[in-house]
Amino acid sequence: EYLKDMGYLPKEESSVATTSQFVAVRHHDRNHEHLHIITSRIRLDGSLVNDSYDYFNSQVSTRRIAAELGLEVTPTTNEAVASRLEQE
């Protein structure tokens, strides 16, 4: 869901050409489980993933996903992110 939100994977399953290659690693080297995602901005069709506002969009996406899964959502200091989440 996160990679779809960020534009690295297509929203529709039929658009394989607009997929980006990625690696996801989940581990427990801290007091909590966490995930690292490494992905290419260059899609398989040669187009680029738009990375404008990626920090903002990432915050919105991760908080939405956490809320849907019933995970603890950490508060944000960014008023724009908080406002957009309230609207959704």
Short recap of the structure:
With 88 residues, this protein is α+β, with helices and mostly antiparallel strands. The protein contains 3 helices and 2 strands, in the order αββαα.
Description:
There is one protein chain. The protein has 88 residues and is α+β, with helices and mostly antiparallel strands. 33% of the residues lie in helices and 20% in strands. It is built from 3 helices and 2 strands. It has helices at 2-6, 54-68, 79-87, and strands spanning 20-27, 34-43. A two-stranded antiparallel sheet has the order 1-2. Helix 2 crosses helix 3 (79-87). The longest helix is centred in the C-terminal third of the chain and has 15 residues, at 54-68.
Question: Which terms summarize this structure?
Answer:
88 residues; alpha+beta
Side by side, the strands of the main sheet go 1-2
Q: Which stretches are low in confidence, meaning pLDDT under 50 for 5 or more residues running?
A: none
State the end-to-end CA separation.
16 Å
Question: Helix- and strand-based class?
Answer: alpha+beta
Largest sheet: 2 strands, antiparallel
Number of helices: 3
Rounded to the nearest angstrom, the radius of gyration is 14 Å
How large is the share of residues in beta strands? Answer: 15-25%
Shape designation: globular
